[in-house]
Amino acid sequence: MVTSYPLTHTHLTHSQAQGVIDGIFSSPSIDGAPQSNPLSALPHPGRITHITELSSEGGTFNTCYILHFPAPPTKQPIATITQLVLKIAPPPNIRLLRYESTPTPLLAIEAYLLDHLTTNQPSLPVPRALAYDDTLTLLDSPFLLTTFLPGVPLSYLRSELAEEKVREIDFEVGRLLRGVNEVRAGIGSGGWGGAWGMVSGKPGTGAWVWVWEFVEGLLRDAEDMKILLPYVEIRRAVRMWGGALDGAQIDCSEAVGGEEEDVLDEPPHPHNPKLCILDFSDSSILVDPDTCRITGLLDFERAFWGDPIAQDIFLPGSPGRENVIRGYNSQSTLNKQMPGRNSRRRRCRELLYMVLSSTTKIMQWYYRQLRSDREEMVQRKRLVEALGALERLSLEAEEPEEGVGKVVV
User: I need a surface site. Which of 84, 200, 221, 403 has the fewest CB within 10 A?
Assistant: First the structure.
């Protein structure tokens, strides 16, 4: 039986953190620094006054710290830094899930995506990547240094704010997420080029191929740990309905018109997957609790080229989902290739991505040793319900042949 270990990093000492700052700012050309070299325009922030470790609901893949520096004197002639964020990857000896063991480390994905987003979508409130280092000379794990964004995760504020304010925030989240999803490929070469799949992983030939390989990897991880899952049902659902994710040979005869346009109704063109964030949710969104304005979008390491509807925030049951979708569609122009609403096709895609999402969360909790009985039961219930709904779809439709593009929904 394979043993897993919690994804925690050795406590960061003050001297280690200061060593990182001194090393980075004295050598701005350090391996992995973004090509735009943003450090060249920033002064050394000085001595660290104190360090705050950030926590996250359900645990984090990386360990995150806020580094605090002295407040600048009054009438300082140049911009100074008072806070930075240091994200440290798990140590190299930690066992990861198969999809996390990508050719390019997840933290490197985030570094390059932040650099790309701040360059090509400067209006998006994302942190600026200052340096990424995987040489293990300053710390025993790769790390990413970014600018600090103020705010409180929406997951902590949603129940505290007035309903009208929450609706406004959700609408703006959808609008901003559309900007992320519309970022074009061309970040680099290889896995950065926009083929379906995880940004740095092995590119698939289409949505269903990537989903099949992703889910199969999760199930093999589960088998390694002898975790109880409905293996047969999950594999059958992806084989049976995977063709609906590509949409190339799907019968749209049941499409109906006359409804408000929703660009999520149809999957992206096979040659034009969108830049998406797999686990994008309330915890990825920073909000100013006083003004109720969004101050930041976070956590881009689980980026993939694919279908926006696969992102957690768009799946059924996500808080504020309907208003997020309205914001997402607010800048749309009519997609002339869209034949109209096909609720069954969209429902099928949602259910398959719910299977992927819940299976991923269950596996992460086991491999992190951060299991919560309540949260695990929520995801197991969601998984079973999605599989049951797909089974009912198969009884309502002509039985599809297992394989690519054979589904009729």
Answer: 403
